[in-house]
Amino acid sequence: MRQAGFSTVEWWLLPIALGMVGLASCGRPQAVQIEVSGTVTYEGQPVPAGVVYFEPTVEAGMTAPTGFAIIRDGRFRTDRVHRPGPGPYVARVTGGDGRRQGPVASLDPENPPEQAMQLGEAWFRDREIPVDLPDEDVVLELRVPSADEASR
């Protein structure tokens, strides 16, 4: 007659099974990221060159993904790697005329041709625009505040 309980093989499998359950339960859900694209204007004109960073506010949470996009001819689009998540963000924009010749600044060493930026003569730096990003891809029209508006 066999006694109720675990055999030697079953005891050996128990730590493996518990470990697999533990690993499955400790994985964090991946943060939702959205594509953000649109236009950027300054004093009514398209910004020729620059960058826009999407920085989460405290309300968005400390684990919300940041994002950035290169501005070319007044347009931008986040790539697959540098997308923000939904919620309240600050769009921090730097722009210039894009005319200066010289070395090209690469923002992403992994993709230099796609992420190269020629800022040129700076028009403005680190101007903040509050944005509330939805749960899906969005097209924005960012109007960069003038120096007077930014200081208010």
How large is the share of residues in beta strands?
Answer: 35-45%
CATH class: Mainly Beta
* Helix residue percentage: 10-25%
- Mean pLDDT metric: 78
- The number of E-state strands comes to 10
Distance between the termini: 87 Å
Detail the poorly predicted runs.
21-28, 111-115
CATH topology, anyone? Answer: Immunoglobulin-like
Q: What count of helical segments does DSSP give?
A: 3
Structural class computed from helices and strand pairing: alpha+beta
When the domains are counted, the total is 1
Could you outline the blueprint of secondary structure elements for this entry?
Layout: H1 8-26, E1 36-42, E2 45-46, E3 49-56, E4 67-72, E5 75-77, E6 87-96, E7 105-106, H2 112-115, E8 116-117, E9 122-133, E10 138-144, H3 147-151
Parallel strand pairs: 1-10
Antiparallel strand pairs: 1-2, 1-5, 3-4, 3-6, 4-5, 6-9, 7-8
Summarize this, please?
By secondary structure, the protein is α+β, with helices and mostly antiparallel strands.
Question: How would you describe what is shown here?
Answer:
- This protein is an alpha+beta fold and 152 residues long.
- The chain has one domain (36-151): Immunoglobulin-like.
- Helix content is 18%, strand content 39%.
- Strands 1, 2, 3, 4, 5, 6, 9 and 10 form an eight-stranded mixed sheet that branches. It has a two-stranded antiparallel ribbon with strand order 7-8.
- The chain is globular, with a radius of gyration of 24 Å.
- The model is unreliable at 21-28 and 111-115 (pLDDT under 50).
